[in-house]
Amino acid sequence: MNASTFNKPLAKTVSFDRYNMWIEFTDGRKLGIPLVYFPRLLRATKKQRDAYIISGGGLGLHWEALDEDISVENLLLGIYDRTTTSSWKPHPINA
What is the pTM of this model? Predict the structure, then answer.
């Protein structure tokens, strides 16, 4: 680990249940994010969801077949996919 990644959240694994994406971090934390925040993942098959790559030593998540890239740091900041075209958009907690 170099100085630029020191104290940054680093993804270790990604898993899914019916409604959420779960990210386990190298420091032991686990974060659940509703799939509705990421329409491409919501519509994806299990096989497509499971074909992720952890990039940048844990700083990013990538799904080649879905053309989806997610910043781990942005997830912790509550920044979700803003490319959705649906009329419904999730609202941050305490907005």
Answer: 0.78
